[in-house]
Amino acid sequence: MYHPDTAASYKVIGAVMQAMGDNVCALKMLKKALAIREKKVLEKEHPDTAVSYNVIGHVMQAMGDNVGALEMYNKACS
Q1: Torsion angle, CA of 18/11/38/76, rounded to 10 degrees?
Q2: What is the number of other CB atoms lying within 10 angstroms of the CB of residue 51?
Q3: Which of 3, 26, 35, 46 could cross-link to 18 by cystine, CB 3.0-4.6 Å?
Q4: Any alpha helices (H) in 20-46, and if so which ranges?
């Protein structure tokens, strides 16, 4: 069973990895956080899930994946 703090930890690790310039690892950690928030703990409508979509979009944009980023930003707004 997952706890919301587990998702928060993955998000923090992702943020640190991004700050270190490792966007691939950051994206992996952020997607783990999203999976926990979206499917196991908080559901898709929770504000923290929207934050996960937004942060993933930011990393994808930094990696040059503007289409993927836009998809994530749109999910954050839904």
Answers
A1: -60
A2: 15
A3: 26
A4: 23-35
Q: What confidence tens digit (pLDDT) does each residue in 40-73 have?
A: 666 666 777 888 899 999 999 999 999 999 999 9
Q: What domains can be seen in the chain, in order of their start residue?
A: 4-77 (1.25.40.10)
pTM score: 0.85
Confidence at residue 43, expressed as pLDDT on a 0 to 100 scale:
65
Structure tokens at 42: 């908080």
Q: Give CA–CA dist 21/47, Å, rounded.
A: 27
Distance between CA atoms of residues 45 and 66, nearest Å: 24
Distance between CA atoms of residues 44 and 36, nearest Å: 10
Residue with tokens 């690892």, as numbered in its chain: 25
